[in-house]
Amino acid sequence: MEITEDTIKHVATLSRLEIDEKDIGKVTEQMSSIINMADQLSEVNTDGVKETVQVVDRDTVFREDKPEHWQDRDELMKNVPDQANGFIKVPVIINKDEDE
Amino acid sequence: MNYLNEDIDSLNEKLAQGTLSADKLAQDTIDNIKKTDDKLNAWITVQEDAKPQNDLDFAHNKLAGIPIAIKDNIITDGVKTTAASHILDNYIPVYDATVIERLKKAQVTLVGKTNMDEFAMGSSTEHSYFGITHNPWNLDKVPGGSSGGSAVAVASGQVVAALGSDTGGSIRQPSAFNGIFGIKPTYGRVSRWGLIAFASSLDEIGVMSKRAKTSAEVLNVIAGSDDHDSTLSTRAVPDFTKYIGQDVKGMHVAVVKEYMAAVDGDMRAVLQEQIDALEKAGAIITEVSLPLTKYVVPDYYIIASSEASSNLQRFDGIRYGYRAQDTKNLLDVYVKSRSEGFGEEVKRRIMLGSFALSAGSYDRFFRQASKVRTLICDEFDKIFAENDVIVGPTTTTPAFGIGSEISDPIKMYNNDILTISANLVGIPAASVPAGLVDGMPVGLQIMAKRFDEGSIFQVADFIERTNKFYEKTPTGMED
């Protein structure tokens, strides 16, 4: 199947990744060959076949919904890159002058 | 000291008798890693202050005081855990994975974290933010991957055993390339709590060591149900060491013709010798066919990448890991942190997964792959209805040259053609050394029914005793 630069740009957006404009040709070519390798599966007749998405030997597991003490707040905040007053700090979420 | 001629029994005996102290063992292990790792680069983090626990109980804990290496995608409390990625290169976990908790309870000495392909995506340990790992049999060859650092740490005698993870062959292929034993247990046998997720329906933690019995001892410790992982089976875990030292008479052994056809004449001859030895010892050999083998690579890459694209959403630069600078809004933090933090191969897989799951592609890719997975499971079920194990090659070639496949992703993906199916089907599988071809190790793969790791240990131990490969020293490690 044909994979265009626009398809790859769309997939990059979905993936929250950006591709440098100078690399887009090469990335499209590479992704196209990988996707076409994956598309070989279209040859297999799967009419009436059920899907397998996991190979677990148990049904849904239930447990009591009760709180547990696991870690202190300070411990959990240790890896946060930017914080203030015990909160995680992030930049503005929506720009005033432009839409996402 | 090194571990080239040691196993769990020999170490436990010396420790119990007092001819070797656990303190000295820990210190000598660190010293030897520092001495040998310049040329190998098997480690990301070495815990230079590693100390054995107090009150070691050598009679009850076979692993007491013995250093074991951990792949760097398994969470260790207070010890940097990176998954070999820039996006996690400053991450210090605040809890232990279940397998680490259990090793600590068994009084293991943890000495550090081993190199790997970033997020376990790769077959050569060339996709690491921390540099390439070298094969101790020939330093110009790759060690395989993604658990390349763990395999090299064992093969070069830096440790007696290591934990790895296997999503499509990441324990077995590097074990084969380095001439050691490595087992991926049944899906649901070992808790994944604290394993940095790649593809949740395929990922499995396992063990690598020179001798099968050593891995059996470690698996005894790490296997079994865990409230933190509801995909884990609740069935009882047998003592895997009881399968060591057994004969193979009457075992039904299947040989897959497509697998044997995938290797060249020299490799086939080495593998055939092992099969002949099994037959001579009374095993019943049957040739079988897995016609869908040619579709397992595309099937795996769709499923694994789809799951990865979902799992890796959590790396967004907010709560932990790398956060990009000079960002103008929240979306920008996500996009820049991910684009700067992930390596090329990881980005390719995330994009393939997003594509396969996206509107317009879902039916043709993800749904179709899930259906083909069912057909692959059916093929294996049929063979296991009449056979105890399947044996054959682990890889299509011995270790390839560093740099020879890195620029061709599809060629690299095809490395996994013989190992992927065990993950798709959820069965246990291992690689045991078969011999050498042009000076490089070749592995015999052994697969068994779900939860029958016992048969794998039985066959692997028989092969070990027959060909005595463990007596060999990697050529790159000779002084």
Automatic annotation (TrEMBL), chain A:
It catalyses: L-glutamyl-tRNA(Gln) + L-glutamine + ATP + H2O = L-glutaminyl-tRNA(Gln) + L-glutamate + ADP + phosphate + H(+); L-aspartyl-tRNA(Asn) + L-glutamine + ATP + H2O = L-asparaginyl-tRNA(Asn) + L-glutamate + ADP + phosphate + 2 H(+). GO terms for biological process: glutaminyl-tRNAGln biosynthesis via transamidation; regulation of translational fidelity; translation. GO terms for molecular function: asparaginyl-tRNA synthase (glutamine-hydrolyzing) activity; ATP binding; glutaminyl-tRNA synthase (glutamine-hydrolyzing) activity; transferase activity. Keywords: ATP-binding, Ligase, Nucleotide-binding, Protein biosynthesis, Transferase. Belongs to the GatC family. HAMAP family: GatC (MF_00122). This is Aspartyl/glutamyl-tRNA(Asn/Gln) amidotransferase subunit C. It comes from Lactobacillus kimbladii. The lineage of its organism: Bacteria, Bacillati, Bacillota, Bacilli, Lactobacillales.
